[in-house]
Specification:
By secondary structure, this protein is an alpha+beta fold. It has two domains: 148 residues, Jelly Rolls (Sandwich); 46 residues, no CATH class. 39% of the residues lie in helices and 22% in strands. The strands form two sheets. It has a four-stranded antiparallel sheet. Strands 2-7-4-5 form a four-stranded antiparallel sheet. Strand 4 and strand 5 form a beta hairpin. 17% of the residues are buried. The mean pLDDT is 82.
Length: 202
């Protein structure tokens, strides 16, 4: 375990502070099968509907969550930056399959471990479980509020909200940020046609 932690801390700009509780001595045996995985950009590393076998802890990089419909249409509904955990919500809810497809947007570094081992860590570490549960519930409540807001605004305002979200994701220290996003991508990620995007004169 110490070897893994030393290896992680050697990675530049890695986000590990959120997960330091994992490296307590009591978790040594549970973390024996964890490994550090580096994944290149635009790799689909989790597929919706697949059985969950491992939990992916994002230590560095950006991941996008994709909803895929039977019609063939796709919709990117969220982006995640490190630190983040994938497969955790499903594990807590005893759901045995991933509920979304996940694709790396940048090169990403993960701490990867079997889902049963991660569930044991949650069971054996109440403080860590409380911290993770609080974070998840806050996110769910924020997203529900966001969805209600979306229902009340016009299409052009929804697109504006989308652009503000992109700015917050990519801008650094409130500086000017140039978003080079194709209209097709904006349409896919907001659920609108390119024609609607064009009417917004973006």
């Amino acid at each position: 375990m110490d070897k893994i932690l030393r290896e992680i801390t050697k990675i530049p700009k890695v986000e590990i502070d959120e997960f330091m509780e994992l490296f307590q001595e009591s978790n040594t045996e549970l973390l024996e099968k964890c490994k550090i995985v580096t994944v290149k950009p635009e790799i689909r590393f989790v597929v919706s509907g697949e059985e969950i076998s491992r939990v992916w802890i994002l230590l560095k990089g950006t991941v996008k969550a994709l909803e895929e419909f039977k019609t063939g249409e796709t919709f990117i509904f969220k982006r995640f930056t490190a630190p983040e955990v994938f497969g955790e919500m499903e594990a807590l809810a005893d759901i045995d399959r991933y509920v979304a497809t996940l694709i790396t947007e940048t090169q990403c570094v993960f701490l990867n471990l079997p889902v049963e081992k991660y569930k044991k860590i949650l069971e054996n570490n109440p403080k860590y479980l409380y911290k993770r549960t609080k974070l998840i519930l806050k996110r769910v409540l924020d997203e529900k509020k966001h969805m209600r807001t979306f229902l009340m605004v016009k299409s052009i305002d929804r697109i504006k909200i989308y652009l503000v979200q992109q700015y917050r994701l990519y801008a650094k220290s409130n500086t000017t940020c140039v978003l080079k996003i194709p209209r097709q991508q904006i349409g896919e990620e907001t659920g609108y046609s390119v024609k609607t995007i064009n009417r917004g004169r973006i």
